[in-house]
Amino acid sequence: KETSLGLNRATMSPRQPGSTMKPLGVYALGIDTNVITYSTMISNSALNIGGTEFRNYGYNTTGPVSVQHAVEVSYNLPPIRILHKKIGYHNSFTFCKEKIGLNHLVEETDENANLAVGGLSYGLTSVESTAAYAIFGNGGKYYEPTTYSQVLDANGEIVLAYDKEPIQ
């Protein structure tokens, strides 16, 4: 530690999540609301929404693909299509903000594909992303992240203490 109240990159430096946003902004809600399953077939062809042409990285397209395959190869078009045609931008935004703690999200006025492909206005912090991803190992349940303030040994003696407030 070099300085008090210095920059904590885990909690204070939002970054663009990119494709790591797809499971959070689209697939989790789609599966949770029974709109999609892992085997649902989704078109992987070019898509135009409101005059904006969306494509996969490398401009590759295929026929319909399963949700599982779309996740495996990180296609852009299936999650964008699910977001706009199945679950809705506002539903995804509300889920991300209120259910999985993505507090840096700002609702866009043009309802673009940011929740499907991760081009967010302010990004996400490492703590937000980590806590949100924990739903996949916690039976779909979100737990607000906490910081350990002290570590005790087997005798109850403090081995390590942190005198700051836990992460909010």
**Spans with pLDDT under 50 lasting ≥5 residues?**
none
Beta fraction of the residues? 5-15%
Number of helices: 7
**Secondary-structure element series:** HHEEEEHHHHHEE
Overall mean pLDDT stands at 88
Oligomeric state as shown:
single chain
Structural class: alpha+beta
| Largest sheet: spatial strand order | 1-4
Biggest sheet details: 2 strands, antiparallel
Task: Classify the helix fraction into a percent range.
Answer: 25-40%
Number of strands: 6
* Straight-line distance between termini: 20 Å
Describe this structure in words.
It is built from 7 helices and 6 strands; from the N terminus they run ααββββαααααββ. Strand 2 and strand 3 (52-54) form a beta hairpin. Helix 2 packs across helix 5. The strands form 3 sheets. The chain has a two-stranded antiparallel sheet. The protein has 168 residues and is an alpha+beta fold. The two termini are 20 Å apart. Helices cover 34% and strands 10% of the residues. The chain is elongated, with a radius of gyration of 19 Å.
List the helices and strands and how they pair.
Blueprint: H1 9-12, H2 21-32, E1 41-42, E2 47-49, E3 52-54, E4 65-66, H3 67-73, H4 77-87, H5 89-99, H6 114-117, H7 126-133, E5 150-152, E6 158-161
Antiparallel strand pairs: 1-4, 2-3, 5-6
Entry summary:
The strands form three sheets. Strands 1-4 form a two-stranded antiparallel sheet.
